[in-house]
Amino acid sequence: MIRHYKDESIKYISKEIVLLIHLFRYSKLEDLTKIQNNYFSRKIGIISHYLCDYTCYPHAYRKTYMGNMREHMLYESELNRYSATHEFEKLEFEMLKVSNDSNLTSIVEEYIEKIVSEYMYSEPSFSNDLNFGFLLAYKITSFIIEAIHSYNEEMSYQFI
């Protein structure tokens, strides 16, 4: 199991994102079988979990070692309660552009780093954790779907 610290898992997550795109690049997402849809959804969930942890105070500031585990769990429990009434702010951040670049993993990694860096400059708060976590997960999920659609369109042009 790979730990949920950005420094230890960002390469793994970036590769998982690109792998998911490549696995489904010639599939129509609306026509997936139940098994394919379950796999795709599970992978998106795992990726989103890691991304949200990158913008969650205990993970971002490494408050998870033995002396702080209780503090970590308490923080996440309070964050969960807070989230029930949280109103998300619309954070502006450019979309990751779909590209056929052979170095896509590095591009994805740099994009994640950029958003996490922006988060680290913000004041630690439940609100920032939720806003940046949602932003990052949303932007990456949108990128995955757009990339798959882009490959799919490319494929259909090849058969015309």
Topology:
Layout (H helix, E strand, L loop, with lengths): L5 H19 L9 H21 L2 H4 L8 H15 L20 H18 L4 H33 L2
For the terminal residues, how far apart are their CA atoms? 45 Å
Percent helix, as a range, is: 55-70%
Q: Which value, in Å, is the CA radius of gyration? A: 17 Å
The outline comes out as globular
Total number of domains: 1
Strand content: under 5%
By DSSP (H or I, 4+ residues per run), the number of helices equals 6
**Which regions are unreliable across 5 or more consecutive residues at pLDDT < 50?**
none
User: H/E series, N to C?
Assistant: HHHHHH
Q: What is the residue-averaged pLDDT?
A: 89
Sheet with most strands: none
InterPro entries: PLPC/GPLD1 (IPR029002)
Protein name: Phospholipase C/D domain-containing protein
Organism: Peptoniphilus indolicus ATCC 29427
Domain Phospholipase C/D: 3-123
Task: Tell me about this structure.
Pfam families: Zn_dep_PLPC (PF00882). Residues 3-123 form the Phospholipase C/D domain. By secondary structure, the chain is an all-alpha fold. It has one domain. 69% of the residues lie in helices and 0% in strands. The protein has six helices and no strands. It has helices at residues 6-24, 34-54, 57-60, 69-83, 104-121, 126-158. Helix 1 (6-24) packs across helix 5 (104-121) and helix 5 (104-121) runs antiparallel to helix 6 (126-158). The model has no long low-confidence stretch (mean pLDDT 89).
Task: Summarize this entry quickly.
This is Phospholipase C/D domain-containing protein. The chain has helices at residues 6-24, 34-54, 57-60, 69-83, 104-121, 126-158. With 160 residues, it is mainly α.
